[in-house]
Amino acid sequence: MGFGIGDLFWIFLLLSSLQPIWQRRQTEYRRFSSLQKFQQERKSRVILLIHRQESISLLGIPLSRYITIEDSEQILRAIRLTPDDVPIDLILHTPGGLVLATEQIARALIRHPSKVTVFVPHYAMSGGTMLALAADEIVMDANAVLGPVDPQLGNFPAASIIKVVDDKPIGEVDDQTLIMADLSRKAIAQVQRFVRTLLKDSIPKQKVKPENIESIIDALTTGRVTHDYPITVEEATEMGLPITVGLPRSIYNLMDMYPQPQGGRPSVQYIPMPFDDRRPMLPLPKGRPMEEPVQKY
């Protein structure tokens, strides 16, 4: 009994359907191996929180991801399983997310007795910055950024809603705006109280000078700038946050294993290695950055 063209077609179809599963398994194995290696080098519990825009299978519909309750459940479980004498390393790449989930994770991080380090290879905005504030040390790429943590009500910044009420006569402000302003004041007060708790954390040691705490709170929570304003390494250091510049190569290798799903032609292309095969060296960790003039709020 021989194979016909029809049989070859079905074999090809079967192999084609199995290929994505095999590739996914291979990628998962590589991720686990790299994570395990980094964890052994650091002698710590390493947790990744990486959010990229995903594509729904088959339809290719973009789906933005952010910090969710499911994320907080998984991270809290990882923290619970970590012995008190083992440090925690959290690798962050996120635009932010739900306030409840973010605060749960941040509280669990400051309650961990050993050192907590947050690594930011590219950006950790909004809720991501809140998690970074819970760390004893924030290790960033020289070009990575954090962001403000001022609360947002719907599509509007809480600080801007309050400004409308303050600038207009009370008789010209509708009831809904007044209610939103009242909620905005409460939201800002709650965020400021929580950020103060994070910055006053002194376990295993004081991470922020007490005289810098209130100025940091004022800069991050009062809406001086837009919510997507990028806070650079220099600016964060100027504020007094515990910033260190320079990521281990292992972090970049891990990030390469979480690529942005492509829906068509790639938007960025380059040749990874020079033609003469001289391998470019990543910058080594170099402690706090040189003092440079920075733009203040």
UniProtKB/TrEMBL annotation:
The family database entries (Pfam families) matched by this protein are listed as: SDH_protease
List the GO terms this entry assigns under cellular component, sorted alphabetically.
membrane
Top-rank taxon of the source lineage equals Bacteria
InterPro entries reported in the protein's UniProt record: ClpP/crotonase-like_dom_sf, Pept_S49_ser-pept_pro
Q: What is this protein called?
A: Serine protease
> Which species is this UniProt entry from?
Dulcicalothrix desertica PCC 7102
